[in-house]
Amino acid sequence: MNGAIRALAAIGSDVYAGGLFTRAAGVKVNYIARWNGSGWFPLGTGMDNPVVALAVIGTDLYAGGVFDSAGGVKVNYVAKWDGSSWSALGTGLDNQVDAIASYGTDLYAGGFFENAGGGPASHIARWDGFGWSSLGIGLRGTNYVQTLLATSNGIGGTNVYVGGQFDTAGGVAARYIAEWNGGHWSALGTGTNWNVLALAVSGTDIYAGGLFNFAGGVLSPHVARWDGSTWSAVGSGVGDYSVLAIAVYGTDLYASGTFTAFSNSDPHDIARWNGSSWSPLGSGTGPRAGYGTPEALVISGNDLYVGGYLRSAGGKPSMYFARWGLPPRPSSVSIVHRSGWNLVSTPEVPSNDSVKVLFPDAVSKAFSYTSGGYQISSTMTPGVGYWLKFPTSTGDSITGTVFPKDSVPVIQGWNLIGSISQPIYVGSITSNPPGMITSRLFGYSGSYVIADSIRPGSAYWVKTNQAGKLFLASSGLMSASNRIKITPTPELPPAPPNEKAAGGRDIPIAFSLDHNYPNPFNPTTVLRYALPTASRVRLSIYNVLGQLVTTLVDRDEDAGYKQIRWSASAATSGVYFYRLQAGKFSDVKKMMLVK
Question: Is 517 in the same domain as 551?
């Protein structure tokens, strides 16, 4: 780099940097560049002026700063990169952007502007993919935003946290930090005594960093925690001046800026909080001598990337950009269950994958789902969804190695998928083949509910139009055309497993072949059968002449209640017969296709 990095973001294994530089490793990049682990690459022709903020929605990168154009396109201080080209967000803003944050499909921007998309928006605005809107009356007067954080409010909405130089937000007294809940502004206690410059979320806690020494009246040198109702110190804080960036990795907090966090007088400027104490990252990014301040942090995989005004890291030359390796760390996810059936998954890679170990209070076996129907399992695989039944409302904590990304194989029809270690917005899911058509995703809470995100520890139903893979965390940059195309339908997922199969009798007491449903049908119907023992199964369809039309199942199957869907779109109207052979058992039923 030939200039400082002011912002970092990650999409899969790629890291994006924005700042004051125009070249990266000799490559002309103009204020923004991509690092793929081995080299730097431009994003089109870049910008005409510096980039100071970055955010990600799905596989799209958003940039904010003091630029007027991106890739030769007039954008007015904020722009989107879709993997191949730059585009404007409406007519943009009327002044520079200093902070951006995203949640779901919404982008939030903060800065010196007074108008967004041609309408009034005092220092903060929201882009919903179609147009700009204000957040109430915003931050009036000489106030300005220096950092933003958008996160779930836990009930399907979004909370936006704003830090900077202000003492009111939306007309409400709020010192240097405030919250927007989608309808109104509120203070976080009595706030801080000086600027908030960095924000991050860990679970339900909000961490703030900046120039302040007090938060909520509590001595908290430059970093503090807000638990939703009160402020608390993070140990003894980090010393002498400021925190400029915060990143969370598992249960660890990383802070960077201009400070001395430890007993000696050498500036380290970067440190880790493990929940009980602060520790340095090697020898840090000092000595400072005018350089050394790390202003931006981002975690990608097991690496912490650092950008800023640094010339060295760990005593080695490092021009504005450095990496600190993070070991795979155990993490823990708490999962709350309701009484009755629950859709669950393991969001970590556990040391013991036994259902009895992971969910000791469950009163049923674990049921996964395949094209043949429900399958009983005594172990759980990350990325796979399961039904489990609990006698009362309870909770479990699953500990294991972080499971940051997953590709889920899917069949045509209904699929029961699991989760990963971090929440995933449904709109960011991509597929192979690209642009797979799917239903909405469904969770379960006594009845099916539409899900807007995949939460760690939960499982979800999704119906796909073809076989392939869903990517819950993309590897590298993928264009918007790779995202799934969600098409709402009135159809609901399969019902929970049969009570008899999940209660005292885990398997059927006899072989059986049920009547198909619906019947008559057009063009799909479901065939159900029961296996009291593991068997070699063959389920075939015949026409009235006794000719084989198709074989739906031809494999060894475990005991259990099974079902499979037949799509007869290529068949003609008429009477058909379906025959089940399972070991020595055989049965035939009749059905009618009416088109």
Answer: yes
Separation in Å, CA 218 to CA 173, 213, 240, 257: 19, 8, 17, 21
Contact between 65 and 96 (Cβ < 8 Å): yes
Q: Name the more confident of 485 and 266.
A: 485
3 state SS of 356 = helix
The whole-number pLDDT of residue 475 equals: 40
Same structural domain, 318 and 395:
no
Amino acid at 375: Q
User: How many domains does one find in the chain?
Assistant: 3
My answer on whether 218 and 306 are in the same domain is yes
Distance of alpha carbon 408 from alpha carbon 356, whole angstroms: 24
Q: Report the amino acid identity of residue 429.
A: I
Give pLDDT tens digits for 361-374.
Answer: 888 888 998 766 78
Report the run of H or E that residue 499 belongs to, with start and end.
helix 499-502
Q: N- to C-terminal Cα distance for the chain?
A: 66
Residue 115 is which amino acid? N
- DSSP conformational letter for 480: G
257 and 206 in a common domain: yes
- Token pair, residue 373, equals 């129907």
Do 378 and 266 sit in the same domain of this protein? Answer: no
In this model, does residue 492 exceed pLDDT 70?
yes
Q: What is the pTM of this model?
A: 0.64
Per residue in 281-317, pLDDT (tens digit) is 887 776 554 455 899 999 988 899 999 988 778 778 7
Domain membership of residue 8 (yes or no) is: no
What is the predicted pLDDT for the residue at 500?
43
One domain, residues 213 and 315: yes
Q: In whole angstroms, what is the distance from residue 354 CA to residue 377 CA? A: 9
pLDDT digits (tens, 9 = 90+) for 412-422: 989 999 998 77
Rounded CA-CA distance 462/492 in Å is: 10
Look at residues 328, 359, 377 and tell me which one is the last residue of a structural domain. 328
Work out the percent of the chain whose per-residue pLDDT is above 70. 91
What CATH number is given to the structural domain containing 207?
2.130.10.10
Task: Tell whether 190 is covered by a domain.
Answer: yes
Domain stop point among 307, 328, 349: 328
